[in-house]
Predict the 3D structure of the following.
Amino acid sequence: MKRFSIILLAIGTFVGVTGCKLETSYPEKIVLNLPGKNVASLELLRIKPGKFIMGTPEKNKSAIISNHFWIGKFEVTQEQWQSLMGNTPSKYKAKNHPVEQVGYYQSLEFCKKLDKLYADQIPAGYKFYLPSETEWEYACRAGTVTALNNGKNLFGEGKFKQSDANLDEVGWYMVNAPESHQTVGLKKPNAWGLYDMHGNVREWTRSWDLTWYVNSGGRKITRGGSFFDMAKFCSSAIRTSTNSCGAGDNLGFRVALVRIADIEHDEAEEIPEPTEKEYNGVNQ
């Protein structure tokens, strides 16, 4: 039987903020060798705690990331999905393209399988899950305050099918990928080494959209642009939401390794009670 392994590239230890006690070091990178022959490893990069300005210039807020987390260097590919889940749900089939047509709960099933294989080899108190939308934007921006994580802004007015040279550097959208998503990792990464956060497929987060209610269980925030979107919908701040039981051919995900306590806090958010109009299907 093939032995699955995890490669931890560790950094040095650091001094805790509460005193001089030396704490356990965190790995800079986590590489998961997935089952199957010649399947590309799943790489997660460490994101350090910090502060950043979240949202658009017109509507932003200061946000804090209090704990280390890790997030996928790339979106999960169809080959990687097949290696763990044994099927190929995507509409546009290509092994090194992002998997799509997977819902929020299906994405979590993928994460649960990772936990079964590697839970005893990752930092205590963490598990594989989806990032929160705050974690996602913090990782996407990588210290930038511009619309794009290459330090540039979107060009012009963002009209329908308008080309954007700045976005072309980092993302796939309806102009440069009009037919479908593309192989992961072909565009420039951000300063923290993450790819395709401005377009290829949109990505699930674990954050609830508390402004909506649907009878099937609520809506989850999705982040990033996609090959289906015009340029102005591919910025670092863009946020949409999708029925948590839904799926789409322009919607995928990237895996995160996050604190269990943070997951429990976010998943405990209560979906507001529906109004009469929502019950009648207006807010679907």
Observations:
- Helices lie at 78-85, 104-118, 133-141, 165-168, 260-267, 276-279.
